[in-house]
Amino acid sequence: MKKIKMPDTFVIIFFVVIFASLLTYIVPVGKFEMQEVTYVTNTGAEKTRNVPVPGSFSYELDDKGNELKKGIKIFEPGGEVGVTNYVFEGLASGDKWGTAVGIVAFLLVVGGAFGIILKTGAVESGIYSMISKSKGSELVLIPVIFILFSLGGAVFGMGEEAIPFAMLVIPIVIDMGYDSITGILITYISTQIGFATSWMNPFSVAIAQGVSGIPVLSGAGFRIFMWLFFTAFGVIYTIFYARRVKRNPESSIAYKTDAYFRDNFKSEEQGNREFKLGHKLIILVLILGIAWVVYGVVKEGYYLPEIATQFVIMGLLAGIIGVVFKLNNMSVNDIATSFRKGAEDMVGAALVIGMAKGIVLILGGTSADTPTILNTILNYVASALSNMSAAFCAWV
User: Which residues are listed as membrane-spanning (predicted)?
Assistant: First the structure.
């Protein structure tokens, strides 16, 4: 019997686009009325925000008074969104502060910066040095890294910022005998656990509490308990999964795709993993740089443009140190080529983000006061949840 092959991500997105396009012929468009509310952030600053007025949803009507349906065309000129426009329009939408163009630029820039850092070999050498000193107890590193990234998600909303760290950690955990899924679990998934149970995330919890008119950081005790519980659950599951993969590497669904990293690390000489002075300086740059990122996000409100630039600075400093100390025989040109290679590795993820944004555009976009079928769908969901218990709605 022929084994069913999982379709490519691009294929899945394409069929979602087709489905979303069909919905535009079935679901009428609607909108919400908006109101401006004032709230206080966790830093004490007063800000304003436009939010939908509860119960204000209304359908857009045509000339005959019927609910309007805006069926999307196959192709739209003039910068409009058609079915086949979803890739470009998705990639080009937004601004530098968010989806999609901002996140795409962020991924490419940060990917390039980490390309330079990885070229120096500092991270690999540092982790291998730590592993050798741990005398076979490298499994201890998994909960430590998991907890740190979960804390990042809880404290300052770490999410897409974890992607470059996943790029860095995955080759390491594969060489330790685990797989890329383990690397994703201890970096990205852990941040999502922290994000979901956060008690102080300035980009979600603090804003939502301020807009709702309740004290900022209220309910922190319960939220911290939830963070501890779910982080512990995530750590236990990850350790269980990692042990299973290490016992039988072929049991991993990522076994074949991880072959590149396994072969790459096997081809390296152990002598190249010596933890030299230059490596230590680069690790110091990384530690100080990450501390700077955390400070900037929490205290100064830094977001994608600033964070990307911070990583560029880290990458440049790492590259200069690599050239000065001849790490991996680096030259000035290697700084440029490794930046380009790091950015290239992120192109696939960048395209996925753009395509996913294209789906949202086909549904009409995210403006609550503009008639779209996305607003109608959200109103359907809200109406369905209105008769549910508050606890159930909170979980949903």
Answer: 9-27, 97-118, 139-159, 165-187, 199-218, 224-242, 277-295, 307-325, 346-365, 377-395
Task: Give exposure, 301-326, as e/b (b: 16+ Cβ within 10 Å).
Answer: ebbbeebbebbbebbebbbbbbbebe
Average pLDDT taken over every residue of the chain:
85
pLDDT tens-digit series, residues 183-196: 999 989 999 999 99
* Nearest CA-CA partner of 364 in 27, 33, 100: 27
**Per the structure, how many domains does the chain have?**
1
User: In degrees to the nearest 10, what's the CA dihedral of 166, 170, 171, 175?
Assistant: 150
The neighbour count for residue 211, using CB atoms within 10 Å, is 16
The answer to whether residue 384 is domain-embedded is no
Residue 310 forms part of a structural domain: yes
Residue 167 has pLDDT above 80, yes or no: no
Q: Give the predicted TM-score (pTM) of the model.
A: 0.73
Q: Is residue 57 part of a domain?
A: no
In a domain, 266, yes or no: yes
CB atoms within 10 A of CB 176: 20
Q: Which of 303, 363, 316 is CA-nearest to residue 105? A: 303
For residue 61, give the amino acid letter.
L
**Amino acid 125: pLDDT:** 80
Maximum distance among all Cα pairs of the chain, rounded to whole angstroms? 79
* pLDDT mean over 95-113: 87
Q: Which of 116, 120, 119 is nearest to 278 (CA)?
A: 120
Do 35 and 51 touch, CB atoms closer than 8 A? yes
The domain in which residue 125 lies consists of 100-351
* CB contact at 8 A, 146 and 231: yes
The pLDDT tens digits of the residues spanning 313-334 come to: 999 999 999 999 999 899 999 9
Please count the residues of the chain: 396
